[in-house]
What we know:
This protein is α+β, with helices and mostly antiparallel strands and 606 residues long. The longest helix has 17 residues, at 427-443.
Amino acid sequence: MFIIGTAGHIDHGKTSLIKALSGIDCDRLPEEKVREITIDIGFARIDFPKFGTVSIIDVPGHERFIRNMVVGAWGVDIGLLVVAVDDGWMPQTEDHFRVLNLLGIERIIIVLNKIDAVDAETADLAEEDVREHLTGTRFEEADLARVSSKTGQGIAELKEIILQNIRKLPRVTDSGKPYLFVDRVFTSKGYGTIVTGTLKNGTFRDNDTVTLLPSAKESRVKKIESHHAKLEEGNSSQRTALNLASISPEEVDRGHIVVKNNFFTSSEEIIARITLMGMKRPLKNNLGIEIIAGTASLKGKIILIDPEKAPEPSQVVRLRFDAPWYFYPGEPFIITHPGGFRIIGGGSVVLPDIGFVMDKKRLAEEIGRAADAPEDLIALVFKTRKFLGENEILRLFPQGDRFIQKTVASLQERGLIVREGGTTLDAAYHGASMKLIARTIEEGMGLNASELADKTGIALDVVKLLLPAVVHSSPVVEKEGRYFSGASITADTLPPDKKKTLDSLAAAGKEGMELERLADEKVKSAVRDLLRLGFAISLDGDIVYHRDTYEALKTSVIALFDGKDKISIPEVRDATGLSRKYIIPLLNRIETDGLIRRIGDFRMKV
């Protein structure tokens, strides 16, 4: 199912147009009947033969009810921008057009209404005026229909245009993470609390366990309806009514969120990319605003990243709210003046919950250079949060798990993130933390993990996670939960297992140990640790000597050069008593140390 919604100036015939299209009067409130204006959102449907049902949302056109207009518009797939030909493009036409644009509505159809009230020339002028307003926008090629909701002229043609546009829409997203912004709450006798809204991003089914935000209270879906028809499941982009168990109507308000597999993050402050429209004065720092996100109206302030910088129509800012609310990266919103009477812009969430970020200005500058594609937002989350636990990234985005996992794998291939155990870390943070931990171990002596965390400022869980990698890649050794660098380790302070292995190496003398022939993995691991710490020396990567044994053999070889320019392998054999199996690796190691070089069958002193 798809959803279309009206937009346009007051008294341009939006509600009467829907009645002509569907036969349903969307003005349901007594006050709306008396005043003959739409105050709140209304709902209808069109049944297209061989296609199915399309929902319609009617919105108020009066500026006093702009909040309600946004509530109705946020989830539509196609907007019907209604312009009365006897009035033309009016202030609320402009505001509503901004909303459709800023919310990222996929397609719009221009409906020139009341053609029965004017002649053809006036209708032509109205169409020309509308096209001028659309020029340069992403909707400049939008389809246009001339109708009279009063006489029915052009209504059949408009229905066909609607159907054509629906068929051009991208496939409805089902990410397995459905949510619904509540726009109505009521009780039904025998059923209890019912909430309605536009279902997005997945499917709700009977008996699903869901979470109600902001209370975080769990509930169960007892019953699902759409346009009064009972369903076993509610699908994405569908007007949906959910009968919720264990929730009283007093616990739910317009703006609340019903979600399964929650990906919304509680936030007092977010970073967002905003676009301002029609601002007559430069944007002031700490300007009080109202944000309409989903169906919720939130009070807050805009905090400029650089108040001295020249204003730009599109910029990255911090938004701080009077009370925490729930957001996700990429979520669109509308900005109004306090009171919600005038649209001043809109934008999208880049990063929710940035209260923990210390250098917000630097972060915002980096975001200003980045794109807003989901892949870029995922990379920014790692860059900002530094590390995330197993599958935690899946719980921060509305996209499906397969898409996120594929993106994370791509970031890893590009070297932007690193996986350690079940944790994923930003690559730059991972490298810097490894170096800092190793340096802190070197500067201290026998620090444990908790002390390392205190001295480095790195979270204890991350320190514990990285210590094995630090030990593996640096001359660091662990002894009874404390860490020592090669500079602070002596043979006497080695852990017992490594001390025993070192003694065995000393006893082996010129026979040494052949690493690949060691059957005991613990001994093999201890030998590798001794090599890293410099207590043992490797010849060609396999034969291992005690450091003292190697130094004695090296001294014997260098002594052969007394009074000579070059030496031969037989001379080395006589001096050391080694077989050719050891002589060649020994000479290669001495050459690696930069003391000799090979010339044919001889070795010359450097």
